[in-house]
Each structure stands twice: as C-alpha cells, then as structure tokens.
Amino acid sequence: MKKNKITSLYIHIPFCQAICDYCDFTKLQYFRIFAEKYLVELKKELNQVVDNHELKTIYVGGGTPTALEDDLFLILLEIIEPYSRYVKEYTFEANPESLSLKKLEMMKKFGVNRISLGVESTDDNILKAINRKHTFDDVKVAVSNIKKVGIDNFNVDLILGLPHVSKTLLMKDLDNILSLEPKHISTYSLTVHPHTVFYLDKIKEPEDDLSRELYELVHHHLLKQGYIQYEVSNFALKGYESKHNFVYWNNEQYYGVGLSAAGYIDNIRYKNTSNLDQYLKGINEKEVEEVTLKDLEEYQIILNLRTNRGIDLAKFNNIFNKDLYISHKDIIDNFIQNKLLYIENNHLIATFEGMMILDKIILELI
After folding, report:
1. C-alpha span between 230 and 298 (Å, rounded)
2. 125 and 24 share a domain?
3. Scanning 48, 96, 117, 311, which has the fewest C-beta atoms within 10 Å of its C-beta?
4. Would you tell me the crossing angle of helices 358-365 and 293-304 to the nearest 10 degrees?
5. Contacts of 266 (CB under 8 A, 6+ apart)
6. How many domains does the chain have?
7. Which domain holds residue 88?
8. pLDDT in tens for each of the 366 residues of the chain?
9. Contact, 15 vs 63, CB < 8 A?
10. What CATH number does the domain containing 176 carry?
11. Is 283 contained in some domain?
C-alpha cells in the first residue's frame, strides 16, 4: 500500500477539573504535578513521532486542554508551535468554565483558529445533574470572549437524550445555541459506558425511536437555519466543515500523540497506552493493528458513508481495483429504491433516512 505524506495531528490532554457522569474518554482529575510531567513526555513523543513540520490540521482534545493552569497552557502552546506554523485549521477543545480571556489571547497569538466548546446542554439544572461545572451564562461569556479575540470559527457540542430532557427542552437548547451564532454544531446521542456514574446509576440510553425523533428534530431545525448536515453527527455553515475530522472520514493517515491517543501511520492503526504512570515514565505500549487491503476497503466504506460526500466510486475503483456499484449492484439498487442511498456525480451517498440506519447499510456492503 502507498505511503502517504501525513498532514494531520491529534494531541490528547487527559486532564479535567471535574469528571462528567457520562464520560468514558481517557481522563483524569487535574493535578499540577502530573500535568507538568505529562508535558515533558508529550514533547518527547512529538519529537519522536511527528516527522512533518508542514501540517495542515492540528486538533488538541481531551480531557480538557483548558484545564491546564495558564503557565502550563503556555508551555503546551510552545511545545506545539514548531508543528503549527503552516496549519490551516488549528483546533482546541475547551470547557466554558476554564476558557478564560487570557487563554484565548494566548491561543490567538499561537495561531489557534478554531475552538470546540463542550456545552452539552443549555439548561442549568441538567448541567448540574450531569456534573458539568458551567452554566449557560458561562457559555455566553466564553463565546463573547472567543469573538472578542477574533477567533471566528467555533463549534458547540450538544448531547441528545440526556435524562429528563424533553423535546421541548431540546428545542430550547437549539435556540439557545443558535443565539450564540456558532459556525459548527456537533450533536451526539447519549451512550452509557461501563464504569461511568451513569452506568452505576443505571441510567438508560434513549430508545431507538426516541433517538431518531431527536435527530430528526435537530436535523430539520438546523437545516432551516442554514446549517448543512455534512456528517452523521455534525452540522456546519457552508465552508466551516471540520477539515481535521474529514481526515478521519476520508480514511487518511494522521499522527496521534498523548495518553490513549489513536493514530494511523504507514498503514498501521495504533492506540497509545492508557496508563498514565507508564506514560510519565516514557513507556508507551501501543495497541497495534496492521491494516490489510481488505481492512482498508472496509474502513473506506464505513467512514466515507458517514459524510454528505459519500464514497467517491472512481477513487474507490482506483484504490481497490473494484467497481463497488457493480460488485454490490443488487444491494445498492435496493437501498436506492428505498431512498436510503443515492448516486450523484459518481459518489454513493446516504440520505438522511440512510444515515439513521447506517450500521445496517454498512453491514450489507461489507
């Protein structure tokens, strides 16, 4: 398989000021002593792993990168700076309560041009119930400061199906979020993972029918406001689709650095250790998957179909020497007849109805 030049980097900062009741990401309560050591090891790993200093996208996620104290946050930006000089899209995840004007001014100075803000709900009672440490007023202040420093592009996260959130409350959430004028909105259906507080409290995920109703409500409401659903869970104003996330969905390779970070280099998919103690000692035992041509083909179908660009059939044929439409003609024609897929400009694309049952479509195609 062809070795491609890698132009995207994901960096994981695992620290949080508080652990949310639903969260299953690799995260830890923030302690300065660990954060200081972590940044030392992160710098070493970047030097070892990233051999291209002309990257196009960088995404710093977590955890909560903005949980770092100001002096450590500055060190983080300085560590990344050699890799960020040519970046087109440079994103930092942030929580409203820790996104100070000072941190934003630092980010602006170092070229960060996109913020992904963890809002999750705009109802203060719901936020308190899920152990979020911000209010909607905090969100408004954070957004005001984002605009004040001149960062035009920001994303807002919203969780669908949280306990006690009715359709009426969801509509209020959407209107509150729209009042902030975000360029991008990500909506995720609640998933209850083992070992989280939600799991221990026996909180249930929304039933499939309710989940679908919530997605339909969001879809129709945001489309009326000029947003494009360019991926199953993501909406953006035209031109503000996430360039970094398209690297994943286009099945392109990328560097992943930091505790539990995933990467894809030279046809090897890997996941770094989740053991902080080991990572701080410079020991990083990765989980590794060698991607075969068959795996690559499956990833191409699974990931491409998540977006409104779909599968480029000519590109697919060029990579795998296979005409996907001809080899799956009966299956694809059936999906087209049932208005779940369509072909446009030689791209196989899921309709909104198709996106709602994408797992079923993908299973039949692979």
Report:
1. 21
2. yes
3. 48
4. 150
5. 3, 253
6. 2
7. 8-249
8. 445 689 999 999 998 765 444 445 444 767 789 999 999 999 999 999 999 889 999 999 988 899 999 999 999 999 999 999 999 999 999 999 999 999 999 999 999 999 999 998 898 988 888 878 889 999 999 999 999 999 999 999 998 877 766 789 899 999 999 999 999 999 987 655 456 555 455 566 556 676 788 889 999 999 999 999 999 999 999 999 999 999 999 999 999 999 999 999 998 999 999 999 999 999 999 999 999 999 999 999 999 999 999 999 999 999 999 999 999 999 999 999 999 999 999 999 999 999 999 999 999 998
9. yes
10. 3.20.20.70
11. no
Q: Is residue 202 part of a domain?
A: yes
Domain end point (choices 249, 274, 301): 249
In this structure, the answer to whether residues 155 and 37 fall within a common structural domain is: yes
Q: Which long-range contacts (CB under 8 A, 24 or more apart) does 161-164 make?
A: 161/189, 161/190, 161/205, 161/206, 161/210, 161/211, 161/214, 162/22, 162/120, 162/121, 162/126, 162/130, 162/190, 163/129, 163/130, 163/203, 164/126, 164/129
List 58's β-bridge partners, or say none.
9, 90
3-state DSSP: the chain helix, strand, coil percent, rounded to 5?
A: 45, 20, 35
Taking each helix axis from N to C end, the angle separating 32-49 and 70-80, rounded to the nearest 10 degrees, works out to: 0
Does some domain include residue 235?
yes
Contact 269, 302 (CB under 8 A): no
- Say if residue 227 is in the same domain as residue 299: no
